[in-house]
Amino acid sequence: MPADIPLPLYQKVKTYLLGQIDQGIWPVNHRLPSEHELVAQFNVSRMTVNRALRELTDEGRLVRLQGVGTFVAPPKAQSALFEIHSIAAEIASRGHRHRCRVLNGTRIEANAELAYALDIALQSPVFHTQMVHYEDETPIQYEERWVNPAAAPHYLQQDFESITAHDYLSSVAPFSEGEHVVEALQPPKKIADELSMLKNEPCLVIQRRTWSGGNVVTFVRLWFPASRYRLVGRFFA
Questions:
Q1: How do strand 125-135 and strand 98-109 relate by DSSP bridges?
Q2: Under DSSP, is residue 183 helix (H, G, I), strand (E, B) or coil?
Q3: Which tens digits make up the pLDDT trace of 79-101?
Q4: Which of 6, 7, 140, 144 is the one with CA 20 to 30 A from 97?
Q5: Beta bridge partners of 129
Q6: How far is CA 51 from CA 8, 15, 35, 44, 58, in A?
C-alpha cells in the first residue's frame, strides 16, 4: 500500500495486535483485552475490532473461545509440501519430543485400490500398519500405511515406537521418487477420536506413494488436524 494512503482502521488494530505478539509482549495463551477495551483504546467501532480479531483468528494467530475470551494461539506445526521427512525429525527440529503409539500391524490381501497404488497383483500380500504420532503429549498425525513386502520383507517385525516407519523404509529401500496428493477431508470418527479433535473439525490429509529403483515401496495416508498443522511449499522459476 503506498505510503500516502492511510491504513484501514481494522488494519491498524491488526498491526498493533501482531506487534504485541511478534515482540513477545503477549506470549502464547496470553488473554487479549476485551473487544470493549480495544474499541475504547482505538476509538473505533466494535465491527472494526471484530474484523481485526476475526482475520487474525482465521490466520491462526489467535484463538477465540465463546464466553471466555481471545488468546494468543500457539504456532502451528508445519511441513515442507514437496519434501519427504520423518515426522520424528520434524518434531525434533522444533525442539519438541516425538512419541509413536502403534495401533495395528498385520498382513492383508491387496484390494483393487491397493493393487493399483502399489503396482502389484490383486490379492497379493500387503503389510498394513496404523499408528498415532505425538508432539510432546499432543496427537498430531494419524498414519495409515501399506507396504509392498517385496521392498521391505521384515517391515512388520520392527519396533515403530523406536524407529519411524519412514526412517526404516528409507534405510532398506531408499526413496528415488515420490507422489503427493493433498486434500482437506472430514475424518472418520475413529481417526478424529485418536487425534482428540473437536466435532466437525477437518483434517489435512496427505496421500503419498514412494518408489525405490522403479518399484513402489509404500502407500500411506497421513491425517493431520487442520487446526494444528500446515504445509509450506517454496517454488523456484
A1: antiparallel
A2: strand
A3: 444 456 688 888 888 888 999 99
A4: 144
A5: 105, 145
A6: 11, 13, 11, 12, 10
* CATH number belonging to domain 77-232: 3.40.1410.10
Closest CA to 77 of 195, 181, 176: 195
Cell of 147: 507396504
Instruction: Provide the pLDDT for residue 27.
Output: 87
Q: Are 53 and 35 in contact (CB under 8 A)?
A: yes
Distances in Å between the alpha carbon of 64 and those of 9, 15, 221? 21, 18, 31
pLDDT tens digit sequence for 90-134: 888 888 899 999 999 999 999 999 999 999 999 999 999 999 999
- Report the C-alpha gap between 87 and 135 in whole angstroms: 9
Longest CA–CA span in the chain (Å) reads 70
CA pair distance 212, 118, nearest whole angstrom:
12
**Measured CA distances, 36 to 39, 48, 128 (Å):** 5, 11, 54
Cell of 8: 484501514
Angle between helices 9-22 and 46-58 (to 10 degrees): 50
Domain boundaries, the chain: 9-72, 77-232
Give the amino acid at 54: R
Its pTM stands at: 0.65
